[in-house]
Amino acid sequence: MKRKSFIILLWVSIGTALFFFFFFTEEKTIENFMLSFLISALYSFFLGVGNGLINDFLNKKFPWSEATTKRAFISVVSILVANFILVYFCNYVNFVFFQKAATAEEFFSGKYNFINWFMVNIALLISAFLHARSFMEELKKTSKKEVVEQKLIAKSANAQFESLKNQLDPHFLFNSLNVLSSLIDENPKQAQKFTASMSKIYRYVLEQKDKELVTVEDEIEFAKTYCDLLKTRFEGSVDFIFDVKKEDYRRYVVPLSLQLLLENCIKHNFATSSKPLIIKIFSENDTLCIENNLQVREQMKESAGIGLANIVQRYSLLTKRNVFIEKSEDYFKVKLPVLSDKPNAVSIKNEDKDKAYERAQKRVKEIKGFYGNLISYCIVIPFLIIINLVTSSKHIWFYFPMLGWGIGLAAHGMSVFAIGKNWEDRKIREILEKENKR
């Protein structure tokens, strides 16, 4: 426990001693005050330090944020056992040694059962208040930590997405200029035609590179234009086959994905009139496939790997669906997921996280409401007990609000930790899992 906690317990001991000294002690002497202070310190420090050590131990072993239900159950059991032992010990020392009002045999004979039971209840109320306070403090820390983590995740994802998009512009320009430089030597007229067509394509690149997703129709039209450029360079050495379903045209893919994959096909394979490179673009089970016959060319230098890696990373930021790559001795195929919706870059990746965060936030509100109810109970009931005992000790009436409110509090706790919506959600998941296994 911290030094601050011991100082608080010291002040509680002094305050309790003054209260009992002035209101319940007939002889106002220094000896009686010191006795009151000693008894108050006995209860305050033993109960306070005992519950504090238990709370610190449970915080390390079973943090509220990681195992809320388990921690709540263990806290209840440990509070009951520990406070029962601590109260009996404090009462024994108080009545047998300090006040010398009873012998050990009388204390355990049943004469002090009511006092022991009463003090156990007071200790439990105070202990519950301390554990609830600990939960609220950890809840604040966890909430702040989650907010910071979510902000960092969002900033990181946005920065990563922007970085990936910024690769497209120079990458396309570099590859196009390489093609153009080759054509200038091989066929100047074709180079002029290529330059005119390249300006149209580059306009598309500038328009689409900042978008997260584009329609399959736009991407196919752009790919066809780009294929015309490649045919201009390679003439009959490269052939392109498009077989994309019309219903996929209104769905979405990442922009310039086809252009990057077409570049890869040309870059990593040789193409001649006798052995033409055949590139197919077609639909297959909610994916857009780009397949080419494998005619691997020897690389003079290692590839930078920007094209395919860029596509994979952009898809990973947008959806859980993966980009699949198939390679055999005869062909190389890349499958791009075709998306039905057009979401935002960060929100898609974190869609499930957002839903989970909303559920967690709702769960926290339920737990917070329960502990607010518990704290109110811990404050109000001891106050009613003191009023009852001071005003009319012969007529005990504090049982009724204590039991009635206590039953309601127990029901509230059961709904939050045991048989609430969390239990319903678990049962629903179990049933669905059983159905899926059939």
How would you explain this protein's 3D organization?
InterPro entries: 2TM_dom, Bact_2-comp_sensor_kinase, MFS_trans_sf, Sig_transdc_His_kin_internal. It holds the Pfam family 2TM. The protein is an alpha+beta fold and 438 residues long. It has helices at 3-24, 30-61, 68-98, 104-111, 113-186, 188-208, 216-234, 257-268, 306-318, 345-349, 351-391, 399-417, 421-437; strands spanning 214-215, 238-243, 252-253, 277-283, 287-293, 324-327, 331-337. The strands form 2 sheets. A 5-stranded mixed sheet has the order 2-4-5-7-6, with helices on one face. A hairpin with a 3-residue loop joins β4 and β5 (287-293). α6 runs antiparallel to α7. It is rod-shaped.
